[in-house]
Design goal:
single chain, alpha+beta, six-stranded antiparallel beta sheet, six-stranded mixed beta sheet, 15 helices
Length: about 500
């Protein structure tokens, strides 16, 4: 998930650190010190006191800075999870063991933009030399299927249902991995969707379950039990093969695609709400699309925002503004807990938030009033008043879901697909600050702005954006390359 908020240089400085350059010597000194600390973490056992101290720091930072820490999970429930984590510290342990205890606790916040990261040294190994599970997967219900086979026998096990890995049942492993992966709120698709994205399943097999190469796998292949032992593949090579497979399957190669289907219908795919789309400023690209819709007198727009993780706040509001003809409020509230944070004390680059960008509220928190989408916004020209059909899935997040929530709330669109991973009522994102726990070197980026959408109460604000027409894939649909959402959209538009 990505979030780009054009809040002005001083806010970005305040939230993300000074933009003044440091000397090369200072940078080298800082990197050297970090390398020494990472080397100490690698292979080092944390004492129980050190692990407990890191838990205290993590909990305090989330409570202090994360404006949505109790948006979905009551304080008593989250406190109980942290207390259970403390009770699990019964012996000295490695940093990655502490990660396995704390990652589900952080996931319990139910914030798609907030997750615990391993120490830098572990992440470097994962992204370079560690041999990872050499398959892409899809999770359908509580079953894991191998949808791409990246071994040297490519395709041999494609479509197989995973039964076990290294003697551990696939359903048990799935439960462990899902405990550390979340979307916003109670989205029922987010975890399964994210595990299938960017080879996350392969990485989490190690970081959460401790499973390493070689992989002894048991599979169900068309009703027959098959066993095999396969060697893992380093992430760079795995990523290369995954990209080749994606392109071979007809995956997109550009930021966006816009095309006509018949005389009355157009399809726009937006891969991300980027400030630059296909080499043009994002706002200019959207303006061109809507000028063409008007000039060609299109009656239906099919908008594909599947796998769109978000991006520029302003572009999301602009896209909505082209689809309405009345002034509107986009956000109900933009919440910041404080102007300065205790966990910034050890960060010489951190600066307090500027007071003229916020307005203090009766509860002691602050409202961000200098956001470009704050207040009453105007419709954009040219206006498109035709039918809008939007394709969504579990990997639609952040800015994308803000736009979707407004479209659905205003009755301007029919959504086809599955529940989004991002929340209907908003999210916690915007600029963030990275906290590195001093002993384990585990990391977490805490985003500092709580986004609350101006939408009605006749929706479930704890869920993702729910489709009007739901699609459900089988493994055969996936293997055939079926596009159930587009098929349903074309039928609805009368283009089947």
């Amino acid at each position: 998930m990505t979030r780009i908020a054009n809040l002005g240089a001083c806010v970005l400085v305040a939230l993300c650190g000074s933009i003044l350059p440091r000397s090369a010597a200072a940078v080298d000194e800082s990197k050297a010190a970090q390398a020494v600390q990472e080397a100490k973490v690698a292979g080092k056992l944390l004492s129980t006191a050190e692990a407990l101290k890191d838990i205290d720091i993590l909990q305090a930072a989330l409570e202090e800075a994360h404006p949505g820490v109790h948006r979905y999970t009551p304080k008593a429930e989250l406190d109980a999870r942290f207390d259970a984590a403390r009770k699990a510290i019964t012996r000295p342990m490695e940093s990655i063991e502490l990660y396995r205890i704390l990652a589900p606790v952080v996931a319990a916040v139910k914030c798609a933009h907030t997750s615990l990261l391993p120490a830098v040294e572990t992440t470097k190994k994962l992204n370079s030399v560690m041999a990872l599970f050499p398959f892409a997967v899809r999770v359908l219900g509580d079953e894991v299927y191998l949808t791409s086979d990246f071994t040297d026998d490519a395709g041999k096990f494609r479509g197989a249902r995973l039964v076990s890995v290294n003697g551990r049942p696939a359903k048990e492993l799935l439960a462990i991995l899902l405990s550390s992966v979340t979307g916003d709120g109670d989205s029922r698709t987010a975890g399964r969707g994210r595990l299938a994205d960017q080879l996350l399943f392969s990485k989490r097999l190690y970081t959460m379950a401790g499973i390493e190469s070689p992989f002894r796998i048991e599979m169900d292949v068309q009703g027959k039990k098959v066993e095999a032992t396969v060697e893992g593949i380093p992430f760079p090579k795995l990523q290369e093969r995954a990209e080749q497979a994606r392109i071979a399957a007809g995956g997109p190669t550009s930021d966006a695609d816009y095309r006509a289907i018949g005389s009355d219908t157009a399809v726009l795919r937006l891969g991300q709400f980027s400030e630059e789309i296909n080499g043009k400023p994002g706002n200019a690209y959207l303006n061109e699309v809507f000028r063409d819709l008007a000039a060609s007198d299109k009656k239906t727009l099919i908008l594909d925002v599947r796998n769109n993780g978000g991006g520029s706040d302003e572009l999301g509001a602009q896209l909505f503004a082209h689809c309405v003809n009345q002034p509107f409020q986009y956000y109900r509230d933009l919440v910041v807990n404080k102007l300065n944070f205790d966990f910034w004390r050890d960060d010489p680059e951190a600066r307090p938030l500027p007071e003229d960008f916020v307005q203090k509220q009766p509860d002691g928190k602050y409202r961000l009033i200098k956001h470009p989408n704050w207040g009453e916004l105007q419709p954009a020209e040219p206006y498109f008043g035709g039918r809008v059909i939007i394709l969504v899935n579990s990997r639609s997040y952040s800015t994308t879901c803000e736009f979707l929530a407004k479209m659905q709330d205003s009755g301007r669109a029919t959504l086809i697909g599955e529940e989004t991973g991002g929340g209907f009522s908003g999210n916690t994102s915007g600029p963030g600050s990275m906290l590195t726990l001093p002993n384990s070197k585990l990391r977490i980026e805490i985003h500092l702005v709580g986004y609350y959408m101006a939408v009605g109460d006749d929706h479930d604000h704890r869920r993702g954006v729910l489709p009007n027409v739901e699609t459900t894939y089988t493994i055969n649909d996936i293997l055939k390359g079926s596009d159930l959402e587009l098929e349903a959209a074309l039928k609805l538009a009368g283009q089947n």
